[in-house]
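Form 7-S
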Amino acid sequence: MRGNIKILLIADSIQLRSSTQKILTDSDCEVLIAESSSDAILELKLSKPDLLFWGISMRNSNSYSAYLALQKDFGAHIPIIIITSLLDLNAPGIIENSLNENYITYPFSAKALLDKINNTLSKVKSAKLTVPTNNFKSRKLRSITSLKDLLYYFRTEAEEIDIIKNKPVYKEQKHANYVYLVESGLVKIHRMDEYGKQLITGLYKPNEFFGFYSFKEISSYPETATCLTTSKLLRISNSKFQELLSQSSNLSLELAQLLSDKLSQLKNHLLEMAYGSVLKKTSNTILQFAENIENKPHQSIKICRNDLANVAGISTESLIRSLSFLKKERLIDINGRDIKILNYHKLQLVR
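Output:
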C-alpha cells in the first residue's frame, strides 16, 4: 500500500483506536482521530482525508442516525469503511451495507486491514477511470445541489490564494470575476463615501462565501474586500459559479435564502446605526467581532480602533470614549489594541 494516505478514524473505543492507529501509522499512513461524529465532521471539513473508518457501534438508533447523516454529507466524496464487532453484525447499518462489502470485523490482523484499504481505494480509482471525462464532469456538477455541496466543491476544485493582513481581495469598480470562500482568517467588505469616510458593510469568517455580484451579466464590484487578518481564500470564476447554479434549482434557492438572511442582518445593523446609542453600537460591534473571529471567552480580540469604529458607524473618538466606559464598568478589559470581554451577558444588555 502506498504511503501518505490520509485516514480519518472515528472510534469511541480507546482500544480500537490505539490498535487500529498503530497498524496504520506503521504503514506510513497519516491518521486523524475523532471520538464522535461531531468531531469527525470538523476534521472532514478541515483535513480532506482519503478514507474514513467508522468505528462507533451502530446498535443504537442515535449512532446509526449519526452514521447516516455523515454518509449523506460526505459519502459521495470519501470512501467509508465500517469497523464492526461480531456483536454488531445484526445492526441495521451493517445489514444494509454488507452488500457493498464496506465493513471489516474487529479484531482484525494488520494484513486484513491493509487489504481492505487497498481494495476500497482501488475500487474508487477504478470507478473514476471508467467514467468518461465529460460525463464525470457533468455528473459532478449535477451532484452540487446544496450549500454543503458547494462548500465541498470549493475545497476540492477552487483556486487557493493567500492574502496578508490589510491587503485587498478585490477593489471597488474592478470587474467582478470571482466568488470566494474564506478558508481561514477574516475579511471585511467596505465602501468609501465622497468625503473619504469608510463604512464596513460585512465581515466574513471561515466557511462563509462572499463576492456574489455577477449572476447573469458581467458587472463590477460595488465595494472593496480587504483581509483584516492574514487569510487563506478559495475562489472560482463567475462563469463556473453560474454553471453550478444552472445545474440545480435547490442550490439557487439555498443561495437566495443565504443572501436574504445577510440582507436582513444588514438592515438590522443600519437600523441600529440610525437609532442606537453610541454605547450600544460599540458593545454590539465588539460582540460582532468576537463572533466572527471566533474567540473564546478568555481570549482577546486583536483589531484596530478604526475598523471597530467603521463597523459601528461612529467616530474613532466616540468609540474610544465608549470603550473607556465599558472598561470602567468591568464589561471589557483593554491592553493596547487587545480587547478582552469580561462579561458577555452584560455586554449584550447594554442600551
